[in-house]
Amino acid sequence: MYFLTGWPRRLLCPLKSEEEPFHVQPSSQRFYFAVLSETQLSVWFSRPSVLIVSYIESAKASSQFGFYQQAEWKQDDSMIAVAAANGYILLFDVVGGGEDKYLYEPVYSKGRRGVKVTPGYKEEQCAPALSLEMKRPIDLEAPITSMQSLQEDLLVSTADGYLHILHWDGVSNGRKAISLCSVPFSLDLQSARGGLCLDLKGVYIRDMTYCVTLDGFAVVLDDGRLGFITPLANRITADQLQGVWAADVTDGTCVAVNNKYRLVTFGCASGSVLVYSIDTTTGSMQLSHKLELTPKHYPDVCNKTGAVKLIRWSPDYSVAMVTWECGGLSLWSVFGAHLICTLGEDFAYRSDGTKKDPINISSMCWGAEGYHLWVITSREEAELVENMEEAPPQTQQAGILQFNFIKSSNQEQVLLHGEDRLYLTCGDPTHPTHHPSPNSTLLGYKHWHVVQIHSTYLESNWPIRVSGGGGVSVFLVSLCVCERVSVCEQNMTVTGGLVWWNGFVVVACYNFIDRQEELRLYLRSSNLDNTFSSVTKLHSDTLLLNVFRDMIILFRADCTICLYSMERRHDGPNPSASVELLQEVSMSRYIPHPALVVSVTLTSVRTETGITLKAPQQACMADSIILNLAGQLIMLQRDRSGPQLQEKVPLPFCPPVVLAQYVENVWTTCRSNRKKRHLLEALWLSCGEAGMKVWLPLFPRDHRKPHSFLSRRIMLPFHINIYPLAVLFEDALVLGASNETVVYDSLEGRESLEGLFPYCTVERTSQIYLHHILRQLLVRNLGEQALLLAQSCAALPYFPHVMELMVHVVLEEEATSREPIPDPLLPTVAKFITEFPLFLQTIVHCARKTEFALWNYLFAAVGNPKDLFEECLMAQDLDTAASYLIILQNMEVPAVSRQHATLLFNTALEQGKWDLCRHMIRFLKAIGSGEMETPPPTPTTQEPSSTGGFEFFRNRSISLSPSADSIAAGKFNLQKTFSMPSGPSAKGDCAENMYIDMMLRRHARHLLEHVRLKELGCFSAQLDFELIGWLCHERTRVARVDDFVMALKCLHKDFLWPFPVTPAGSISSPFKNGHRRTVLSQHLLKSQSADSLLNSDMDTAPPQAVARNSNHTWLDGLGALGPTEPTEMDTALSHGGPQTQEAFLSPLTNKNSISLRCSQRTLYLPLPLPTSLSRSISLSRALYLSLPRSRSTSFDLSLPRALPLSPSRS
Q1: What is residue 1157's three-state secondary structure?
Q2: Which of 579, 672, 1017, 1144 has its Cα between 20 and 30 A from that of 1060?
Q3: pTM of the predicted model, to two decimals?
Q4: Spatial CA neighbour of 438 closest among 684, 680, 619
Q5: Long-range contacts: 859-864, Cβ < 8 Å, 24+?
Q6: Confidence tier at 605 by pLDDT (50, 70, 90)
């Protein structure tokens, strides 16, 4: 496909002249261009684009012949015919200046010599010196309206209604004249005899073009009617012409033909382009499609373009450029896909918003290989540009602009090529370790890898093609680095293209020395030389080449398809390849002209009943040949109906069948993947304006026997928003490219070409197509196949988006339909999505991206949003539940929204979703401040903000139910949640704030009851809860600690604090063995439960009660663990997570250590207390402490009340 790039270039004429050019005509090979002004004929060269020769008519001859009007080249570029205004045909001989006479030659640096091996070296690298010699003029005695060059003749139409057939040599006896009235016109060739014929009296041909593949002339009559004239014999004579005309068309203006696709295009006064095909059976003209601007994309200019002025097909006939009387350019693909238009967007408006005048074009043509479009602007436009550019008088503006294009090729990855560079998609070059696989999406990197082709190669091989020009240039794409490896010898030219196979470059070429068509295989790792190549002689010219696994398919000029097998061998120092002819298939019965074949493909796709039972190795066999014949997709399958022959002998092919019409590109793959058989074994088609089609296989589920009445494949059409250039089968993506523009206004304050035209760039694009296929399968009641396909793609990262797109597209179409839909699809789609866990997210995301007016239709099909909200809560999907709350806030009365918001708020508090809690607080306040029992106006379709969307719905509440009393009880009992007081007290922010504060205080009380202090702190910090004041208020209630041991354990667990560990060199203690520690622990637990130790006041018991159980105080030696126990603790902590160790107050081992002794009622401390302490611990109620494990940590004992101290125990 074609993409505009950069700015257009202006060509300057070195000759001073006051006449402006108005017509340009290319030669047959488009190396030369004839440019006409009123009395001047100039010949320009293509590369470099320079003026070669100019012929200026004398004043006397100009008065006799009249001004020049149009020109036509002879097929061999040796003559030019010019039509003058007074009815004269002027024939000019184009005479070369000799073998060594050139106007421009390349200049090489010192020590460098040009390559001069290729025949025609001078013609390709140098601009030749030509001269024009006028022969005797021919007077046709009537104004000339159109000219068309044939092989040996020149066909001229005049305003008196005659067709003149002139020989190019200009001899008088070679002139013939045929009256248009003598040519019978009918609707088809079958009714030509005795049928209705046109009355052509006084009618002449305004424009005409010859179509080689249709062997006829497409004409536009001066009354606007359209026709096609076919000669019934080899020679054009009056009694051997038959015409057909198109019914109901009377506004034709111009005509152009597409020889490759056998199409005839007519421009109309309405601004549309009608594309006709000729029926091969009846010969009638059948309307194929239209090329026109639609009000959807161009509402301001679609009806203001004026009549179509010119239509020009590209050299490969894949695109058509159209211009109108009011100016502008527009590009369409062969079957109507719109690509570029200069009547809108940045082409029509400046950066400040002011509108530009469209460029008015008087003539245009394509350059060599379609890399340039030569455009001649009108006289007024040329004067405007000249004034803008302020060109010096010695170099007057020639009025010629060159638009630059880059083209695409049909590959598995997107590949674009210009006249001197390649655009590759190799991924991100900043990551050299990335090896792109054949099916890698490479979607994260949007830039191109541009490879500039060396000028040395271009000197002898311009213009480049995807398959090479003269010689072969190989570019290796490895590690995201593109490097031109070698240029093979210049004694050959590529004819059928080149492909990669198993480390070899396969080339179909013509050998100039041997005059022989050859198939060559060059080793990738070696120089491209015949020494390392495998050469196979071919019997005819190769036009197309393709590869499927280890097989090559060739299409030859004699309409024969050849199949070859290839085998890689390792019988020498370098790998080699052997090629063997397997089969030849003649297609001459089905192909009228070899140029009509667009592509040839070998594939494993077939329609047999065994498609569901074939083994994996059979799925990769080359079973079918697919031909794109002028837009018709034809398939030839292996004939397996007869007796099976020997295994080495290939099976014959069945007669061809037509799979599809209007096909531009075809994609298939030889890879296999049992998990994605639907996508890999499908056939993908690009059909222009009709979008894409996929020929999808249908498989039975769980290997069950298929039904006999079901088809094995189905053709599904679907539309996409980009032009497809490649298909990623496993990723369910279509890759493409699109034109983007950048506006640059002139910095000097005056207009220039940079100000008239934006700078054009080409960007990579991609689009998901899976939702289209799933929808088409559901429409055809193939839900089981749709489920299999969706399950195979469920692991794709954008699969949730696929589900949303499917729901959104169906909803938009059905809910906005003006006519009732008897069998709506949305309930089926909703039921289909419930098979996947992302059902709830899909529905709510689709609803929030859809207009509010469509919500009723959506939730009538998918279910009540209150039920969906409760399902989200049950699944603990609070974010999705919040989205459903927005839906409820707009569809229900405020009481319902408050109940559900309260339930979600409490759940979010319990799970610590603080961001959601903040949104819910604002949401509840918004309900209270803007509460109304009557619904407000319908909301707009503005997209909610990214912060959750709650600010967008402030002060809005839509009710679609009569009252809140009609709310049915769902899976959650909403009555158990907090309810907002009703009545006048509920109106206002004060009551709403009290309601929210009550819920916050309740949650804080719940956290404190369960000693979740860390979460309480986060709760206070995140939600701005006044914690200190609340604790003071609750100091005698929930803030009172009754079970200190449990509280301290929960505190350590909550903050992941370790319990203390006594150092190895601590004070000896009688409690070193584990038995005594166990007994002590049991004693403490008993005392805890018996209300003897922790639940009594410390200052009410006598200190003598401590000496009953032991000779030593139990606090003196609790921390003195045995020498092995700390090691075990360290080992446990090193292998696990944050571990804790329980211990009582133990003496420190440093010089500031203190000795503590306590009884059951009294704690004894030494005086004075150490001052270098780091942690404060309150001992108002508990003696059992949890200390950090670090041995260097000290602590400060802050006592809330006076305790009896014993100095004698220090």
Answers
A1: strand
A2: 1017
A3: 0.76
A4: 680
A5: 859/887, 859/891, 861/824, 861/826, 861/827, 861/829, 861/830, 862/826, 862/830, 863/830
A6: confident
